[in-house]
Amino acid sequence: MSFEVINDVAKPIISGFGITWKRLKREKVTVQYPEERREQFARTRWRHVLTRYDNGLERCIGCSLCAGACPARCIYVQAAENTDEERYSPGERYSERYEINMLRCIFCGYCQEACPTGAIVLRKDFELANYDRGDFVYTKEMLLEPIRR
Ligand code: SF4
Ligand code: SF4
To answer: Ligand 1, residues 111, 126, 128, 143: which to mutate, most atoms within 8 A of Cβ?
Structure first.
């Protein structure tokens, strides 16, 4: 066998087995999901949530900066005016309609970065599977966090 053949064929195989051998000596980790869950990294970004202030008002002011920043163009915001009788957010406007098409989302977090009020945030809920494509369009009602009592 020539030196080139050893170099091109045998060496990568031996080196591959070497990596496998090193891995075999490591502690095995089996997580019994869904009964057990791994601790996620602090900056994990999964499902979006529209947050509220402590007094229950919505943080979202319908400015659409999140939609403008989204590279996948998956956010739709329709703003409306608050009135003294019907107030949803502290600002002049609020989002009457807010939707995210989760099939297009790439979880980059740009929407969260762009939001001036900290309204849209990506949290750690990663169980997003569904049966119907239509169910992946998350509406404001699905995204808005409940009022804390
Ligand atoms: S995480 Fe990225 S892709 Fe997903 S909605 Fe936000 S900006 Fe768009
Ligand atoms: S989530 Fe933030 S950036 Fe998006 S419309 Fe509401 S306030 Fe503006």
So the answer is: 111
**Mean pLDDT, rounded, for 11-32:** 91
Is there an atom of ligand 2 within 6 Å of 64 CB? Answer: yes
Tell me the average pLDDT of the chain. Answer: 94
DSSP 135: G
Give the CATH number of domain 48-143; options: 3.30.420.40, 3.40.50.1820, 3.90.650.10, 3.30.70.3270: 3.30.70.3270
Residue closest by Cα to atom 7 of ligand 2: 60
For residue 70 and ligand 1, the question of a CB distance below 6 A is answered with: yes
Entry pTM: 0.82
- Residue-level length of the chain: 149
Kindly state the tokens that stand for 34.
């869904």
